Amino acid sequence: MAAGTKDDPWELSTAPGTSAYTMYRDGDELVCQVGSTRLAYQARAIEDLTDWLRIQGDWVPLGAADEQKAAAEGTVEAFGRSGVNPVGGWYGVRKGYRGRFGMYLPPLLEALGLVELTHDARNNQVRARD
Fold it and tell me: How far apart are CA 85 and CA 125, in angstroms?
C-alpha cells in the first residue's frame, strides 16, 4: 500500500470503479486529486467518519453530492457537512469544492481497512468493519 504522501499517494477509485483519483495527507489536510480538480478535506475525517459509521452500526448510503446541492439525510455526504458532526460543518476546506465527501472518503477508508464498501453501479453503501 502507498504511504499516502505527495510523493507516494493512495491510488483509489470511486465505489462503482468508474473514476480513478489519488489522495495523500498533507499536514492536517487530505488532498484529493481528480484529474485536474483538487479537493481537500480535513484529515481528521478519517477517524471521525469511521467512528460515526461504527455508531450507525449498519450500512449507510454514500449520497455523494456537489457542494451546491443538498445532501440526502442519513448519508455519508450529509455527515460530511452537518453542523452536528465533530467539526461543526464542512470537512471540505476549499470553498466551492467542499462536496463529494461521500464519493471520495469511503474508498480511502476501505483501502485503509477501516470499512466495507459496496461496488455497485449506483447507490453504494459503507459500514465500519468490526
Answer: 19
Residue boundaries of the structural domains of the chain: 10-128
Q: Which pLDDT band, with edges at 50, 70 and 90, does 1 fall under? A: confident
Q: Of 113, 108, 129, which Cα lies nearest the Cα of 4?
A: 108
Residues 60-88 have pLDDT tens digits of: 999 999 999 999 999 999 999 999 999 99
H/E stretch holding 29 reads: strand 29-34
pLDDT at 130 over 90: no
Cα distances (Å, whole numbers) of residue 82 to 70, 79, 96, 100, 104 = 11, 5, 16, 14, 17
Quote the DSSP letter at residue 21: E
Instruction: Decide: helix, strand or coil at residue 108.
Output: helix
Q: How far apart are CA 25 and CA 9, in angstroms?
A: 8
Distance between CA atoms of residues 37 and 59, nearest Å: 29
In which residue are the cell numbers 455519508 written? 76
